[in-house]
Design goal:
- InterPro entries: Chromosome_partition/occlusion, HTH_ParB/Spo0J, ParB/RepB/Spo0J, ParB/Sulfiredoxin_sf, ParB_dimer_C, ParB_N.
- Belongs to the ParB family.
- The structure is a single chain.
- The chain is an alpha/beta fold and 308 residues long.
- Among the domains are: 20-139, Conserved hypothetical protein from pyrococcus furiosus pfu- 392566-001, ParB domain; 188-248, no CATH class.
- The protein has 14 helices and seven strands.
- It has helices at residues 3-13, 20-24, 70-83, 105-113, 128-141, 147-161, 165-172, 176-184, 190-197, 203-209, 215-225, 229-240, 258-271, 293-303, and strands at 50-53, 57-58, 89-94, 98-103, 118-123, 274-280, 283-289.
- Strand 3 (89-94) and strand 4 (98-103) form a beta hairpin.
- Helix 5 (128-141) runs antiparallel to helix 6.
- The radius of gyration is 23 Å and the shape is globular.
- 30% of the residues are buried.
Length: 308
């Protein structure tokens, strides 16, 4: 293989494996943690790491993530006490010599629990839209957002910053249909959204309940009984047909195994991609469909644990 072939293949590969760094401009790559600019004046707005006072940093009020696991924060704080902060947070300057978190609020919270007074940070000038984009992508890549938080972030980027669903799909590496389906969850009553946010119901449960009469009561019953998504879809179908579960008759009629269909839907909800499962005589295949290099990148990141 010639040197030119190697170079061409490397250039063709560059769009993959970049993830969040593509939005951040590679600010976190090969940057040593130092104490430059900690004393006096405002730290330079560049790619070097600076130690900033924790008290001068605040989270973004529209951060997509609203819920933080306190036990996980305690564990991270203990790790920080022992080893320090391994990865700097990203902040942007605001008025009064203060800073707003762009990425890394969980680390900032853990540093406070560890009772440290400074945190390594990279200061960058990001617009409001860029800040929300980066926070959204960071949380999605780390799988930190529940479906409602993710949907609310998409809605804000569309309503306030005029992003299209296609543009959002490219930014987060998921399908347009996944984004559309998530945003439909915001049509659910607030109390049902709370059940999804709290983990009592999944995205699949929520999607099945959209537009159902007595949605709130039905959602509470489903959460209380621990019904699966497939059981919920069946219950909703019978309700819309005006039948009770007792009236349901077995009618396979050559239809696909409903367990496989439910599994496909569950995986599609998790990945944000179309998933196909073929099964026959105890073996089969799993197909993941992608429509862009960003979506292929996301698949590779998940399959390799982020090491791709």
């Amino acid at each position: 293989m010639s040197e030119g072939d190697v170079t061409n293949r490397a250039q063709a590969r560059r769009p993959l494996g970049r993830g969040l760094s593509a939005l951040l401009g590679d600010v976190t790559q090969d940057v040593p943690v130092s104490n430059d600019g900690a004393e006096g004046g405002r730290p330079e707005n560049n790619r070097s790491v600076q130690f900033l006072p924790v008290s001068r940093i605040a989270p973004h009020p529209e951060q997509p993530r609203r819920q933080f696991d306190e036990q996980a924060l305690d564990e991270l704080a203990e790790s920080i006490r022992a080893r320090g902060v391994i990865q700097p947070i990203i902040v942007r300057p605001v008025s009064g010599g203060r800073y707003q978190i762009v990425a890394g609020e969980r680390r900032w919270r853990a540093v406070q629990k560890a009772q440290l007074h400074e945190i390594p940070a990279i200061v960058r000038d990001f617009s409001e839209a860029e800040t929300l984009e980066i926070a959204l992508v960071e949380n999605i890549q780390r799988e930190d957002l529940n479906p409602i938080e993710e949907a609310q972030a998409y809605r804000r980027l569309i309503d306030q910053f005029q992003h299209s669903q296609d543009a959002l799909a490219r930014i987060v590496g998921k399908s347009r249909s996944h984004i559309a389906n998530l945003m439909r969850l915001l049509d659910l009553p607030d109390d049902v959204q709370d059940l999804v946010m709290g983990g009592q119901l999944s995205m699949g449960h929520g999607r099945a309940l959209i537009g159902v009469s007595d949605c709130s009561q039905l959602a509470r019953d489903i959460a209380h009984k621990g019904l699966s998504v497939r059981e919920t879809e069946k219950l909703v179908r019978l309700k819309r047909e005006g039948r009770s579960p007792r009236e349901e008759t077995s009618n396979a009629g050559g239809a696909r195994d409903p367990d496989l269909v439910a599994m496909e839907q569950h995986l599609s909800d998790l990945l944000g991609l179309k998933v196909g499962i073929a099964f026959e005589n105890g073996k089969g295949s799993l197909t993941l469909n992608y429509s862009s290099l960003e979506q292929l990148d996301m698949i590779c990141q998940k399959l390799t644990g982020g090491g791709f």
